[in-house]
Amino acid sequence: MTLSLEGRVAVVTGGSRGIGRGIALHLARAGADCVITYRRNEAAAAEVVAALRAVGRRAHAERLDLSEPEQVGPAFERIAGALGRVDVLVANAAATAFRPVLEQKPHNVRRTFAISVDSFVAMAQASVPLMTGRPGRIVLVSGIDSFQAMGGHGVLGAAKAAAEGLVRGLALELGPLGITVNAVTPGFITTDSSAYYITQGLGLDYQQAAARLLAATPVRRHGTTEDVAALVGYLASDAASFLTGQCIVIDGGLTITSPMTRMDERS
Question: Edge-to-edge strands of the sheet including 179-186?
Answer without folding.
Answer: 59-63, 33-38, 9-12, 88-91, 136-141, 179-186, 247-250
